[in-house]
Amino acid sequence: MSATASSVRTAVLTEHPVRPQGRLQQIDILRGAIMIIMALDHVRDFFHSAALSFAPENLARTTPAIFFTRWITHFCAPVFMFTAGLGAFLWLQRGRSKGRLSRFLLTRGLWLIVLELTISRLGLYFNFDYSFIALIVIWALGCCMVLLAALIYLPVRWLALLSIAMIAGHNLLDRFPAAKFGSLAPLWNVIHQPGIVPVGKYLVLVGYPLLPWVAVMAGGYCFGQVFLLDPQRRQRLLIQTGIALTAGFILLRLVNVYGNPAPWSHQRSALFTVMSFLNCTKYPPSLLFLLMTMGPALIALGCLEHVRLRDWNPLLVFGRVPLFYYLVHLYLIHTIALALAYLRYGNGSFLFNPVPTMGRPQQPFPSDYGYALWAVYLLWFLVVALSYPVCLWYARLKQRRRDWWLSYL
Q: What three-state secondary structure class fits 295?
């Protein structure tokens, strides 16, 4: 891994830089793919019968199909955070100043935090009861952008070292539970340990602690220098770095000493042992979780170097309007869930509360609520298909117009 990092640094400093022309399709394609995969996880949350009774990573109760349906979606958050940082770096290469980039990151980050608490929250819960507030991925993305607005003023080498140190070392903090910090425990929840924080009469779920996530976004920003190289060199470095990270995951996981709060163990079958090996902690993302996901993601990014797709291809469409797609698909999923509930039970009022996988529901769901996994996959296809036309319209609107507000959604 150190040799690869050295080769990346040498290449960036010695090779003639190539200014990226327009969008690099490979980034949009990868981001589009993870956005489609992300929808599978949210459809599973709302529709799968088992989702209401146990976590898909619970090896005592799960099945391989359920486990891997959840596991494949682990790639979404790290790739989206990383490409957000990468996108910030490429945005800077279009003749803009760091001051302008910083202002954009600050305002867009604050806007995302507002979205999490308003439009995104409404899509998840379909209610205006703020007694339970979940601070999840859009909130974390916004907060990381706000922090990155300041971090970009550090020299890239220093920021890269800081990012690597935070990703590699934050699991050393696992030994310090929030309860040890007394009145400062909520701050520790925001920084490192997920948890529910009482704020007056409100309950605030902090699902995405910021320390590792801001490191991933900052790492993406620093890695943007690789995208100034010529395509052949860039592709080689992406694949080499991805292989190194993946190999690092395998070796460190085999040692079973550091990098994830829960070690893997031998299970009742070889397949379940593999599942235990892959069962890394997402909240917060452990070092091994990030190696496991970012390694293959960088390999995929390198393999996509010479792939060219038409502008109407769903991967490009969703990859170019990810936030818009995120909001659209939430409302579609929840609306379909309500429609099916009224058809099945004659009542869907229980869906005006958080589903159990997203927090504590305020009233019980029907005991037989949910559908088989094959139905979840069919509904996933339906949600993606219905999202496509409106996202295609919005992507073409962004191509035709340069209104400032289009860059915020």
A: helix
User: CA-to-CA distance for 214 and 81, rounded, in angstroms?
Assistant: 8
Phi/psi for 63 (5° steps) reads -120, 160
Q: What is the pTM of this model?
A: 0.92
Give the closest residue to 283 by CA, choosing from 196, 223, 179: 196
Enumerate residue ranges in the chain where pLDDT < 70.
1-23, 358-363
**3-state class (DSSP) for residue 52:** helix
- Rounded to whole angstroms, the Cα distance separating 25 from 32 reads 10
Q: What three-state secondary structure class fits 196?
A: strand
Tokens at residue 31, please? 């981001």
- Helices 98-115 and 76-92, interaxial angle, to 10°? 150
Residue 4: closest CA among 169, 172, 247: 247
In this structure, the dihedral spanned by the alpha carbons of residues 184, 190, 195 and 199, taken in order and rounded to 10 degrees, is: 60
Residue 219: closest CA among 278, 320, 171, 287: 287
Torsion, CA 224, CA 151, CA 88, CA 155, rounded to 10: -40
Contacts of 346 (CB under 8 A, 6+ apart): none
HSE-CB for 171 with a 13 A CA cutoff:
20
Note the pLDDT of residue 356: 75
Q: Is 22 left (phi over 0), alpha (psi -120 to 50) or beta?
A: left
**For residues 222 and 160, is the Cβ–Cβ distance under 8 A?**
yes
Tell whether omega for the bond before 284 is within 30 degrees of 0, i.e. cis.
yes
In sequence order, which residues have a C-beta less than 8 Å from that of residue 77 and are 6 or more positions away?
A: 137, 208, 213, 282, 285
Q: Could you give the CA distance from residue 360 to residue 224 in angstroms, rounded to a whole number? A: 40
Can you give the residue ranges of every domain in the chain? 2-408
| Helical (H) or strand (E) element with 156 | helix 156-169
DSSP reduced 3-state for 56: coil
Angle at 164 between CA 179 and CA 226, to 5 degrees: 145
Q: What are the structure tokens assigned to 206, written together?
A: 């902090």
Q: Beginning with the edge strand found earlier in the chain, give each strand of the sheet holding 195-199 in spatial order.
A: 132-135, 202-206, 195-199
Q: What is the pLDDT of residues 188-215, one digit of tens each?
A: 999 999 999 998 889 999 999 999 999 9
* Joined tokens for residue 157: 């080498």
Sequence-separated (6 or more) residues with CB below 8 Å from residue 397: 406
